[in-house]
Design a protein that fits this description.
heterodimer; A: 29% helix; B: alpha+beta; 4-stranded antiparallel β-sheet; rod-shaped; binds adenosine-5'-triphosphate; binds magnesium ion
Chain lengths: 241, 352
């Protein structure tokens, strides 16, 4: 295991408000260490998705400090953001598949955006889709796929480029328990290859399925730390919710 | 649950460790190259494919094209552009033809001076005309001075007076001398001609030919300005049409743009995709418009040539004019691509 070698992300005193309302996230601070597997839990509306959005650079905090891959992400000039985004795989809660592209093309998208030659795109994408059980739906548009199938396409797209950080927002919300376990295995495999994984979920059963995972909890926009995962250096202990 | 290159069931399996990108310091763009093929196992798990950065600029052969729907001529954009280009081409050609007509006529008439010897008695008139011709040829800058033969004058008058009416002294017709001078017939030149005629033909009337046609020139000038302002207005309308199409295309693809943006697509990459797509639409539309416009212009040109009228014969388009007309569709395409690019970039700037 990677241990505490690298710091993938750090939040310090991060606050976020949408508009003039009260803060959705308040005084959030934690450190994500390279190679670890994190779960982010919390009730619906606690701010999980909002926190992840800042983590994958789709949202700036209203206050506080965020560093990613050892670089201050707040002051990062715009032209450097794409390079950072390509190091992060994201499974969106609402999938965000491109509607007019087939499952195959959606999964191939990160590779193509990064300029991988076409001959190096086809086989990995096929293998990946096959593995998430969509071998026979490669040409299907998202609209013709079930919710669970779309979710699997979204996951395949997030992991195909073997990102350094994988951020998954409720990645198993729409699949049966068996598929959920299978997808978790995929995340674990990726994690063993060195990818830091953050999975937001309110499915507490999942937490037990990944030994060695660390848990972060959001409670109405504030961070709590049941496993000590957020302390530095973090203790690695089995997640027992 | 085996997949090539990794065994998910066997926890003991030794997975080569991929060194993480060094933290701290500048990290991009090098780490931006995806650790490709990790899943198929072909490119190995050690990240052997790293450092392949060519794609940063290339964005994959064929990969870029799939981002926007490929169905061409599906929306109104190419057709709107086709119509606008057709009309603009016709207006431009008309404007240029009118200018050519005016220029040719002006050139023809600028150096022309008519001298009329108004004298009731035919023999005196003829003698004065001969003397006047001689005197005129003596004036510096006069290229030619031709006494228009009586037969020719009669011919000109037939429509008004009927055949034979002008014969003899029944209706005295002034003698005409057609004078060409080098350069424009301005006041000073006319005065010089008058002075030369003063002794030999005191009753002569000297007129610049352009003077007669001044109203025609003014009318032509107005037409020319009309054509020019039509081109200007059409260019504005074309711009507006292109802008609206680019914006509607952007609205349709906003989600795609957002997704590609979130996946690490650069502004330049995304702008290029839409610029290209818009460029293709505009090219198609412009080509159709150009062909239609050219056909219309050529048919019109043939009709006018058929008239065989002296003045209108100057209205043919020269190669340079055709080149100017050909610029219309090119400008439409460039404008469309620029608009698409700018609107995408502006939309992207609003995203983080
Ligand atoms: N774009 C937005 N504009 C305004 N308010 C928002 C926006 N996005 C989220 N919120 C609010 O922020 C709060 C946290 O939302 P968020 O989506 O982060 O919760 P969550 O923990 O992901 O919930 P769930 O488990 O249901 O996905 C909610 O009260 C939500 O209404
Ligand atoms: Mg959420």
């Amino acid at each position: 295991m990677t241990g505490i070698a690298g710091e993938i992300a750090r939040f310090d005193n991060v606050g976020l408000r949408y508009g003039p309302d009260r803060e959705v996230l308040c005084d959030v601070g934690f450190t994500l260490h390279a190679g670890h597997f994190y779960f982010l839990t919390g009730a619906s509306g606690a701010g999980k998705s909002s926190l992840l959005r800042m983590l994958y650079l789709a949202q700036r905090p209203s206050r506080g400090m965020i560093s990613l891959f050892g670089t201050d992400a707040i002051t990062l000039p715009r032209h450097r953001l794409p390079g950072f985004r390509r190091r992060i795989g994201v499974v969106y809660q609402d999938y965000r598949l491109v509607p007019h592209l087939s499952a195959f093309d959606n999964v191939a998208l990160p590779l193509r955006v990064a300029g991988v030659p076409e001959r190096d795109v086809v086989q990995p994408v096929k293998d990946m889709l096959e593995w998430v059980g969509l071998a026979d739906r490669m040409g299907a548009r998202p609209a013709t796929l079930s919710g669970g199938e779309q979710q699997r396409v979204a996951i395949a797209r997030a992991v195909i480029g073997r990102p350094e950080l994988l951020v998954a927002d409720e990645p198993t919300g729409n699949v049966d328990p068996e598929m959920a376990i299978k997808l978790l295995r995929l995340f674990e495999a990726l994690n063993r290859l060195g990818t830091t994984v953050v999975v937001a979920t309110h499915d507490l059963h999942l937490l037990q399925k990944v030994p060695g995972s660390l848990i972060m909890r959001l409670d109405r926009g504030r961070m709590s730390d049941p496993t000590g995962a957020l302390r530095y250096p973090p203790r690695r202990e089995n997640a027992q919710p | 649950m085996n997949l090539p290159g990794m065994n998910l069931d066997d926890e003991q399996v030794q997975i080569p460790h991929r060194p993480l990108a060094p933290t701290g310091g500048p990290v991009d763009p090098a780490p931006a190259a995806p650790r490709r093929g990790w899943f198929s196992g072909r490119a190995a798990l050690s990240g052997s494919g790293e450092g392949k950065l060519a794609g940063w600029r290339a964005f994959g052969s064929g990969g870029e094209g799939v981002l926007v729907p490929q169905a061409r001529l599906s929306g109104p954009t190419p057709w709107v552009i086709a119509i606008m280009v057709t009309i603009t081409v016709i207006a431009a050609a008309t404007g240029l033809a009118l200018r050519n007509i005016a220029n040719a006529a002006a050139l023809d008439l600028a150096g022309g001076v008519s001298v009329q010897i108004i004298e009731a008695q035919a023999p005196v008139r003829a003698a004065q005309a001969q003397a006047a011709q001689k005197a005129l040829l003596g004036v510096p800058g006069v290229i030619s001075a031709r006494v228009v033969p009586q037969a020719e004058l009669d011919q000109l008058l037939v429509p008004w007076l009927g055949a034979g009416m002008s014969d003899g002294d029944m209706v005295p017709v002034p003698a005409m001398i057609d004078v060409r001078i080098d350069g424009a017939a301005n006041g000073a030149r006319i005065a010089a001609l008058r002075a030369a005629l003063g002794r030999v033909a005191p009753g002569a009337r000297v007129d610049a030919q352009s003077h007669w046609l001044a109203p025609v020139f003014e009318a032509m000038d107005s037409l020319r300005w009309l054509a020019l302002s039509m081109i200007g207005l059409l260019a504005l309308a074309l711009t507006a049409a292109v802008l609206l199409s680019a914006r509607s295309a952007l609205g349709t693809h906003r989600r795609t743009i957002e997704i590609v943006h979130n996946l690490g697509g650069t502004d330049a990459q995304i702008a290029r995709i839409f610029q290209r797509s818009m460029g293709m639409d505009a090219t198609l539309g412009s080509l159709v418009g150009m062909v239609l416009g050219q056909i219309a212009v050529m048919v019109l040109g043939a009709r006018f040539a058929g008239l065989g009228a002296g003045l209108l014969a100057g209205g043919v388009l020269r190669p340079l004019d055709w080149a100017v007309v050909a610029l219309v569709p090119v400008a439409a395409v460039v404008l469309a691509m620029l608009t698409a690019r700018l609107s995408v970039l502006i939309a992207l700037r609003r995203m983080l």
